[in-house]
Amino acid sequence: MVVEEAGCGPAKPAGNRRPQKQEPLGHVKKSKQQVSDGFTVKAMMKNTVVRGPPLAGAFKERPTKPTAFRKFYERGDFPIAVEHDTKGNRIAWKVSHSMPLIAT
Length: 104
What we know:
This is Parkin coregulated. It comes from Meleagris gallopavo. Residues 1-35 are annotated as: Disordered. By secondary structure, the chain is mainly beta. The chain has one helix and four strands. The chain is 8% helix and 17% strand. A hairpin with a 2-residue loop joins strand 3 (80-85) and strand 4.
């Protein structure tokens, strides 16, 4: 009866393996990383970092355009004023809602 050992296939002698290079402790291997654009052949290479997309500017503060309301308000065409209160600013109408009494 033949008893097979745990390894399957021919046994490799230990002398055929190349010794691995060991770096001294504390020595950090410096790898130069190449920067490239996305979706290119270079992007799939080793030691390559893909550049991110450009900023879209969605959160950039932009000045507001003057509206027709602001133009009429500053000119004084609307009968309103801003009431500065401790609770906040409110719009106050300058028009009286009382109707004149008609005597008959």
